[in-house]
């Protein structure tokens, strides 16, 4: 069977109602196996070898369970991804992810085990706008 561990999906498959960043920017993911109390080591993507960054995301899907509305997306990128601008007068940052992939896993932390998904991307940008961060070099926005 040719099903890979990670499956490529579209933004619309995962976030049909859009997505909003809940963090101000991308933070480096700590490699707990290689880091010590004194020395932080950033985790790298097992396939690409690129450093991993993470952002908190809110899914506004009205049918999503409360526990499914807040997720983390890890971004494999050479440089720290730049988040899109917030909406004028609001703290919300609408976002779309590039190269989105899901990895299913068994979450046995609750009363009953369930299938859960981790999310990875190669970049992020404003919906319908110019791409920011990820593996691409951010372009200066002309005024």
TrEMBL record:
Source species of the chain: Actinomycetospora aurantiaca
Superkingdom: Bacteria
Name of the molecule in the record: Plasmid replication, integration and excision activator
Region listing for Disordered, in residue ranges: 123-143
Record lineage: Bacteria, Bacillati, Actinomycetota, Actinomycetes, Pseudonocardiales
């Amino acid at each position: 069977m040719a099903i890979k561990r990670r499956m490529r999906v579209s933004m619309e498959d995962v976030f049909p109602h859009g997505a909003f960043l809940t963090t101000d920017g991308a933070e480096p993911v700590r490699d707990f196996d290689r880091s010590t109390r004194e020395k932080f080591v950033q985790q790298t993507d097992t396939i690409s070898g690129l450093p991993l960054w993470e952002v908190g995301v809110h899914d506004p899907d009205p049918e999503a369970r409360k526990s499914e509305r807040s997720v983390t997306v890890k971004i494999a990128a050479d440089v720290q991804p730049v988040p899109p601008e917030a909406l004028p007068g609001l703290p919300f940052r609408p976002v779309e992810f590039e190269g989105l992939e899901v990895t299913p896993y068994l979450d046995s932390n609750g009363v009953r085990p369930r299938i859960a998904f981790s999310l990875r991307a190669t970049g992020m940008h404003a919906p319908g706008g110019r791409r920011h961060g990820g593996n691409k070099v951010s372009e200066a926005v002309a005024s």
